Amino acid sequence: MAGRSSFGFLGRFGRSADLRAFDEGLRRCDVHPAQVVDGVKLAAVRLVQKHGKADSLPDRAYEDAAALVAFTVLGEGRMAELLGQDLAETLAARVERAADCPDGLDAELILLALHTGLVAPHVADAFGLSIDEG
């Protein structure tokens, strides 16, 4: 599916499966897809594809990426309420490990969220997330 992401055209053609999976991942985390602009979703999907090992990735890969983006929007407490403490802790660990692998998918998704203003201030403070201006 790499390179075939599409928003549709004039309402006649539907969104591509990868973008629908990303939207579904956001919905599962109580983030309405309209809260994340299409350009950010497309960039996130392309990052998943860049880091994916197969030409056709399962929907789960996009949903996992969306969950991490949603985590930056909502924070650990809200994610725990929605999806359970175990998943919230898993997502928090992914954020913490992202600094150790700056070229990894999670780091790139977090950086995308930072640059687009999606990261909630309390999440940025809790995890020390910032963009170096130097």
Structural commentary:
The protein has 134 residues and is mostly helical. The chain has one domain. Helices cover 61% and strands 0% of the residues. It contains seven helices and no strands. α2 crosses α3, α2 packs antiparallel against α6 and α3 crosses α6. The model has no long low-confidence stretch (mean pLDDT 89).
Radius of gyration: 14 Å
Shape: globular
Average pLDDT reading: 89
Query: What profile does the largest beta sheet have?
Result: none
Distance between the termini: 36 Å
Strand tally: 0
Report the β-strand fraction as a percent range: under 5%
User: Can you count the helices?
Assistant: 7
Low-confidence stretches: none
Structural class: mainly alpha
Helical proportion?
A: 55-70%
- H and E order: HHHHHHH
How many structural units, i.e. domains?
1
In short:
By secondary structure, the chain is mainly alpha-helical.
Secondary structure blueprint with pairings:
Blueprint: H1 17-28, H2 38-51, H3 59-74, H4 76-83, H5 85-98, H6 105-115, H7 121-127
Helix pairs in contact: 1-3, 2-3, 2-6, 3-4, 3-6, 4-5, 5-6
Descriptors:
134 residues, mainly alpha, globular
